[in-house]
């Protein structure tokens, strides 16, 4: 309540000033003053009309200023005009001490008004605070000169191209603006380039001035440039496609992929799913400006132009990571319709996951919005699944599995939910002849590890804080990983925690690297490689082999030979087009 007092005071002052400014009040006060000057007694009855004119407002005594003397409290406050009326009076009597006193009170009132003015109190008691929230970035006046400078650099580029720059050359414009190279596609598109096939200087200037005057940092500008179809407050998955297609078509590390148009979209959608997995922390399917600002995406995007080997960019873009994800999906999606069902997913990692958690995965608790198909998992959803399954230390993964285990959706993992998942693990272990722990003992261990803030009540934040969420989750639904952990040398586990300070690969990066090596090794073991590098290799088999190698980004030379030898579509390798979908080809592939 205490913080309300100053506001109440302001309201009272406001009412008092209103009362003072009313003509009737002033008339009565003037009469009173004249009577005082003439030494006549004041009549209390004269105050009654004022009560009426205020009409419902509190009568007689509006609160006096704090320094008013007790005698003044009996009278109505003096109008500021009284001094004027006194001056105009021909008699000009000496000021009485009371009047002096009153004058002092009035000055103090004035001071208060000043103080109030300083904090800009406006009628209605709303305080106008300086702006502290800048959703589109904080404007910086010193930047405007900088952007004019950029415009002169851009002008030079346009002069080099006789006034109109085509799409292929727009990188020069992006660089002249001081932006990363791969901003060129959205810049070109937003300036209206796709309509005309080129952008002229006036077209660019209009776009650039509007962009830099309304959007004040790279995150808000990036969102504005990409979100052409809807509001400029967020990005949806499709908004990234032109940008990523440009990267596929021009990045030196993806040269081997150029001919394989069918894989462009697979790669692009894998990258988009990864971007949303890491950046869209709100799970809305819409990346907002603050989410983009909080992520490393723009830095990683900028780093692409300095790194020729795309596999070195392990965040979002690595081709090897894409290859692993896609191969894992391909293994499960036996009919190759790019959808997998419960039965398919059960086969993942040799039935490592429990059937209960798989059922939950298909319940819609971790699939979002319009992509949800009853009983099916789409490819982008599988990307989320694999990232979550293989790196249970990442916050998104913890959120992912928490949603799956929180069956009643109350934000708490209750005992009955834990027991539901644990009982399946126990039956699995019993079938394998492995010694099991009763649920109560398991629970004790788990609570000891998670240390929930509220006893017996495991929340998402508890799991995020405990740093051992991956052990927690594996205990309840991934028997292989649970046993792997149980059988580990405890000292090795302790070392893991001590060593986490330095820049170490994440669990996901470690997994992707191992799997990639395995896939390559399997490929090498399944297929004889002799003759692969020879000019006179035989038609189909070796072509398919070289295509696979190219898909892996292993050998550019092989790819070149292949280009020379044949124009066989890459779909042969994977059967994506449905022409070749027999088992032989699948075997070749793996
Ligand atoms: Ca399928
Ligand atoms: Ca629950």
In short:
By secondary structure, this protein is mainly α. 57% of the residues lie in helices and 3% in strands. The chain has helices at residues 5-21, 23-38, 48-54, 70-73, 82-88, 97-118, 142-160, 170-176, 184-190, 193-196, 201-214, 218-226, 241-250, 261-279, 289-294, 297-303, 319-332, 342-346, 355-361, 379-390, 395-405, 415-431, 439-450, 460-466, 469-477, 479-486, 490-498, 507-526, 540-551, 556-565, 571-574, 583-589; strands spanning 164-166, 198-200, 234-235, 287-288, 339-340, 377-378, 412-413, 458-459.
Task: Fill in the keyword field for this structure.
two-stranded antiparallel ribbon, 32 helices, two-stranded antiparallel sheet, 590 residues, mainly alpha
Mean pLDDT: 78
Strand order of the largest sheet: 1-2
- Tally of separate helices: 32
Task: Give the terminus-to-terminus CA distance.
Answer: 72 Å
Helix percentage range: 55-70%
Unreliable runs: 46-115, 529-550, 553-590
Spatial extent as radius of gyration: 38 Å
**Largest sheet properties:** 2 strands, antiparallel
Q: What is the 3D form? A: flat
Structural class: mainly alpha
DSSP, total strands = 8
Biased composition (Basic and acidic residues): 97-111, 555-566
Domain EF-hand: 393-428
Region (Disordered): 40-111, 555-590
Biased composition (Acidic residues): 578-590
């Amino acid at each position: 309540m205490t913080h309300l007092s100053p506001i109440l005071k302001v309201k009272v002052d406001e009412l008092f000033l209103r009362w003072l400014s009313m003509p009737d009040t002033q008339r009565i006060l003037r009469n009173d003053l004249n009577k005082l000057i003439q030494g006549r007694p004041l009549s209390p009855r004269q105050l009654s009309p004022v009560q009426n004119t205020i009409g419902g407002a509190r009568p007689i005594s509006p609160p006096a200023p704090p320094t008013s003397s007790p005698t003044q409290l009996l009278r109505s406050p003096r109008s500021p005009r009284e001094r004027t009326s006194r001056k105009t009076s021909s008699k000009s009597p000496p000021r009485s001490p009371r009047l002096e006193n009153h004058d002092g009170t009035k000055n103090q009132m004035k001071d208060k008004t000043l103080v109030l003015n300083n904090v800009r109190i406006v009628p209605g008691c709303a305080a106008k605070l300086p702006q502290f929230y800048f959703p589109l970035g904080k404007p910086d006046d010193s930047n405007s000169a900088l952007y004019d400078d950029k415009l002169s650099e851009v002008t030079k580029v346009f002069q080099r191209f006789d006034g109109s720059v085509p799409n292929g050359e727009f990188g020069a414009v992006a660089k002249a603006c001081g932006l990363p190279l791969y901003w060129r596609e959205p810049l070109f598109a937003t300036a209206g380039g796709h309509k005309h096939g080129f952008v002229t200087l006036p077209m660019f200037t209009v776009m650039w001035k509007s962009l830099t005057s309304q959007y004040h940092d790279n995150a808000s500008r990036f969102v504005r440039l990409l979100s052409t179809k809807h509001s400029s407050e967020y990005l949806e998955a499709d908004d990234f496609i032109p940008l990523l297609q440009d990267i596929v078509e021009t990045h030196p590390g993806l040269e081997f992929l150029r001919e394989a148009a069918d894989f462009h979209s697979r790669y692009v959608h894998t990258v988009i799913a990864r971007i949303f997995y890491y950046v869209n922390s709100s799970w809305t399917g819409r990346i907002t400006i603050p989410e983009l600002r909080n992520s490393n995406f723009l830095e990683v995007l900028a780093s692409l132009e300095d790194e020729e080997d795309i596999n070195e960019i392990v965040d979002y873009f690595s081709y090897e990571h894409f290859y692993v994800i896609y191969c894992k999906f391909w293994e499960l999606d036996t009919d190759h319709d790019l959808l997998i069902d419960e039965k398919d997913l059960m086969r993942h990692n040799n039935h490592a996951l429990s059937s209960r958690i798989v059922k939950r995965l298909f319940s819609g608790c971790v699939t979002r919005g319009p992509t949800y198909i009853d009983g099916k998992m789409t490819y982008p959803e599988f990307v989320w699944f694999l990232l979550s399954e293989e790196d249970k230390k990442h916050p998104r993964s913890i959120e992912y599995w928490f949603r799956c285990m929180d069956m009643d959706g109350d934000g708490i993992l209750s005992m009955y939910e834990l027991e539901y998942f644990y009982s399946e693990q126990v039956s699995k272990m019993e079938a394998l002849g492995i010694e099991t722990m009763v649920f109560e003992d398991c629970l004790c261990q788990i609570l000891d590890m998670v240390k929930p803030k509220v006893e017996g009540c495991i929340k998402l934040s508890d799991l995020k804080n405990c740093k051992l969420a991956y052990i927690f989750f594996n205990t309840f639904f991934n028997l292989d990983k649970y046993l792997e952990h149980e059988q580990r040398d405890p000292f090795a586990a302790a070392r893991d925690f001590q060593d986490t300070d330095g820049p170490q690969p994440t669990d996901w990066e470690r997994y992707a690297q191992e799997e990639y090596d395995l896939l390559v090794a399997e490929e090498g073991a399944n297929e004889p490689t002799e003759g692969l590098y020879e000019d006179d290799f035989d038609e189909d088999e070796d072509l398919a082999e070289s295509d696979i190698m190219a898909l892996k980004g292993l050998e550019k030379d092989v790819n070149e030979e292949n280009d020379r030898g044949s124009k066989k579509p890459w779909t042969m390798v994977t059967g994506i087009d449905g022409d070749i979908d027999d088992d032989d080809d699948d075997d070749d592939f793996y």
